[in-house]
Amino acid sequence: MKFLPLIWAGIWRKPGRAILTLLSVANAFLLFGILQGFASGLNHAVAQTHADVLLTFSRVSQVEPLPLSHVDQIRTVPGVRAATPLIPLIATYRTPTQIVPADGVDPKQILAVDPGLVIPQSMINALANTRTGALVGRNMATRYGWKVGDRVPLRALQIQNRDGSQTWPVDIVGIFTSKGGTLFANAMLVNFDYIDEGRASGGGTANVFFVRVDDPNRAAQVAAGIDRLFANSPNETKTATVRQIAQDQIKQLGDIGFVINAIVGAVFFALLFSVGALMMQSVRERTPELAVLKTLGFTDRGLMGLILSESLIFCVVSAAVGLGLAALLFPVARRTIGFDVQAGPLMLAGLGLAVALALISGLPPAIRAMHLEVVDALAGR
Amino acid sequence: MAAVVSLKHVIKCYRRGRQVLEVLHNLDLEVEAGEFLALMGPSGSGKTTLLNLIGGLDQPTEGEVVVAGEDIDRLSGGELARWRSRHVGFVFQFYNLMPTLSAERNVELPLLLTPLSAAQRKQSVDAALALVGLTDWRKHRPNELSGGQQQRVAIARAIVADPTLLVCDEPTGDLDRQTAEDVLGFLQQLNRTQGKTIIMVTHDPKAASFASRIVNLDKGALVPAPAMASV
């Protein structure tokens, strides 16, 4: 600790240069925090999905409708606890950018199907008893300023109402707060029958069936059993766990982990040179001062330790600034894209990276300082 | 009096490209405890080289250098650094203060290498700054001080750890005459009242007259001069 003023003074010898470098390092760590936060949020979201919830789609494509009668047959498959059909009603609210993902579901089955959904039975009953009823998550209600009793005119993007319009008025009958892992955290739940019976075409079908199994370890067998049930029929199915589907969808975007690591790697590779050049220039400028320290009795290793400490403190402080800014953005990410970033491990990884950056970039100037010939340096040679 | 510095048959050579240059030739010198020795000589005569050997900044090519009872030509780099921190205080022509540190932080530097507590270090720094008359300037950085004040901070830094020996390389070379005389007077007072052994390199006969003994160095060989009367 007693060397801290000396180290601190060394860092701020040229304040302008130090601040600019600090900003560039902080910026890199901000980028690291956001990108890694995005990746960790995706992984966390996948990890939070339940292994005992299956989705059954048409084997042809996920948008191809399946007969509603499938749901009764699915419920007969051994190991199935509950099942519900679902119609995704992608709609907008007042402006085209106010997207409302509304899902038509069976209110009597939805709690049994989604273990992550925590909704009081009274709300479920209210939904079941109100044909145009809707339950919305707390985040969505807050975003649009909705409260129970409000009538909300949704404008569907694809499903046309039987009256020829795209408008689907719904009445808010409950606002729920879900725990992690539900697929409906940022969705609106409406009655399946309201959508199915009210649409101009496609009645009696569903795009997907939600299935809950008794034992998550037997999810694969149950999924295979469901698909076998409809094999060689005009409406063959493809069933998988929510986790598997989420992983497949992420894979379709590309190897996100690789892309993020490549970007972060390139940024930090450039940063190595930037911080390394700063430290080297700083040591070169201070050659007479470092020689004086040696004259006063600082050993070669002591001087090396001073320079490495400078590099370490500079990088860790800069990283803390960048990661701190990234942490401020995590709640925004949680609100907007529903990702729950695991900040703790991310911060630790970032600080570890800062230490590595400091040691690698600080080592060459530290070695130079260590090998300084005091007599030559004092003589200006 | 016992010799604080004893050089026997010291030869110092430097390699300049393919050439080997002998700067000091078979040199013998003894400096007793409490002496104020002025080393004089023309440029290139080897004064600073000799001072570097005595101060443990450099090692002889041949011969023996014993300072404060230690055969320092046999010490490793690390041992020599630790020995310097205990036994030698340095004062340079251009002060060589840390520009980013305040006067008190500059003076504290040698004490960072000691096991003293923060309170003890502060006490020693206060005493050293009071001795050079800069208590009120303790928070100022070198660029806020005059040349004479900077040199006094350098002297405070040199004496704060109470070294056996004070080594001064042209300490007044960058000062005007009046300020130079003030600094030299202070060194002389330090020598007389505290018995501090001082070895000073200078070109200036006036500066040398503040010393108790003058030694002339010419082309790497010592030419002893008679002891000076007190100024």
Topology:
The complex is a heterodimer of chains A (381) and B (231).
Chain A lengths: L3 H8 L3 H34 L4 E6 L7 E2 L2 H6 L4 E13 L6 E7 L1 H7 L7 H9 L3 E5 H7 L6 E6 L10 E10 L11 E4 H7 L6 E2 L1 E6 L5 H11 L7 E5 H11 L3 H30 L1 H10 L3 H38 L5 H28 L3 H5 L3
Chain B lengths: L2 E14 L2 E14 L3 E5 L6 H8 L7 E6 L2 E2 L5 H11 E4 L11 H6 L9 H14 L15 H13 L5 E5 L7 H18 L2 E6 L2 H4 L4 E6 L2 E4 L7
Parallel strand pairs in B: 3-8, 3-9, 6-7, 7-8
Antiparallel strand pairs in B: 1-2, 1-4, 4-5, 9-10
Helix pairs in contact in B: 4-5, 5-6
The backbone outline of chain B, from C-alpha atoms, is: globular
Low-confidence stretches of chain A: none
CATH class of chain B: Alpha Beta
Order of helices and strands of chain B: EEEHEEHEHHHEHEHEE
Question: Can you offer a commentary on this structure?
Answer:
The complex is a heterodimer of chains A (381) and B (231). The relative contact order of chain A is 0.18. Chain A folds into two domains: 4-46 and 254-378, no CATH class; 53-214, no CATH class. In chain A, a hairpin with a 6-residue loop joins strand 3 (80-92) and strand 4. With 381 residues, chain A is of the alpha+beta class. In chain A, helix 2 (15-48) crosses helix 12 (300-337). Chain A contains 14 helices and eleven strands. The longest helix of chain A has 38 residues, at 300-337. By secondary structure, chain B is of the alpha/beta class. Chain B has one domain (3-224): P-loop containing nucleotide triphosphate hydrolases (Rossmann fold), CATH 3.40.50. Chain B has helices spanning 47-54, 77-87, 103-108, 118-131, 147-159, 177-194, 205-208, and strands spanning 3-16, 19-32, 36-40, 62-67, 70-71, 88-91, 165-169, 197-202, 213-218, 221-224. In chain B, helix 5 (147-159) packs parallel to helix 6. The interface between A and B is medium-sized, with 25 and 28 residues.
